Fold:
Amino acid sequence: MSMISSPRFYTPRSAARLCPAESPEKARVGALADAVRLIRRDEELAVWSTPLGEFATMATESLDHIAFLAAEFQRDVYLSGQVAVNQGAIVLDVGANIGMFTRQALGKGAGRVISFEPTPGTRLALRYNVAAAVAAGRVSIIEAGAWDARDTLSFVVDPLRPGRSSCMDPAAAQDECRISISVVP
Structure:
């Protein structure tokens, strides 16, 4: 949807494919990698200090991927052109990942964000990252993917870059695993 809708915006996966090896974006990611620091890691989560604040991820995430996500959100790629969050809006974050867009939408004035995240490890990081907003009733987390009907689907998870996980266009990653996820309309 993000590649065919108007205005167009890009997912982490599509942005990586469109980014040449020696681009200004690669330089930005490299510079951010120097600013990203691992605060702590346990069996389930890694907590990172980034220029955008503290974020938890699955413990398997790499510093390079966190720097890529931070660069993407610094450029405001999800809120560009006619795409905006109106004051008090109810926003759907479908495929919420670790909640960076959920937090961005709240920061832009959303009254409430409904975050869909089907992957258990990523959802654990999402819960950590938006815990205060959940407690305040501003964020609801739906433990499922969005679909046109209630169902269970096969889902390929890339543990190093969970944003590339998919049931539609599986990533070809060496460490990928397949899980079943619930989906809801």
About this structure: The first helix runs from residue 12 to 18. The longest strand covers residues 177-184. The two ends are 16 Å apart (CA to CA).
